[in-house]
Amino acid sequence: MTTSPTPVYPPSPWNLHAQGYLSAWALPSGELPELPAGITALTVKGTAFVFTAWIDYQPPGQLAYHELLAAVVVHNRHSGLSGRRPTVSITGIWVDSEVSLAGGRQLWAIPKGLASLDFTTGGHFTAVASTAEDWIATAAFAPRRGLPFAPPHRFAIAQGRNGLPLVTPVRSSGKPAPASASWHINPAGPLGFLAGRKPLFSAHLRDVALQFGD
């Protein structure tokens, strides 16, 4: 019996370019998926916050692939990074690249899985994510009027490795624009904790440049 070799992936840091489609959610902290040991959700009066994003990684970045993720806003006391950098922990993430999957797991303990991710772009953005077992989610984004906002240019990803937090710095720049979004989430799937809910807000993150890792 032979095993497939691990795909060769770039060393850290990864320099990536992307179009991102993001939604923010609020829900009772007791309904969150499990977080890694030593990492706790940041809550306000029992309410926790989650970001979901469809990301289309494109040239001239080091890798080109599609991604869907869900990340919980967490306390940053374990970050070991200078400053009080906003921190999230990724609880579900799917890509259509074996290179990205291998690198994300090995370098930063990000629990990437493989999925079919179909994106349609233009004036509007639509996306479908599914695995061999079942569908995960679909979404449609459309531009809307609204005040511009500035997402953080520095944040951190906190994952778990060998029972301890592993924190990775991220730098980003881009052009955020307000959007409306309609999500349909499989209630029996890995994002089922968000099924039937409506996002607090959504945005199109245009021409994003990311440095992941250091």
UniProtKB/TrEMBL annotation:
Coiled coil, from the record: none
Pfam family, one: ADC
GO MF terms, alphabetically ordered: lyase activity
Gene3D superfamilies recorded: Acetoacetate decarboxylase-like
Protein name: Acetoacetate decarboxylase (ADC)
Source species: Prauserella marina
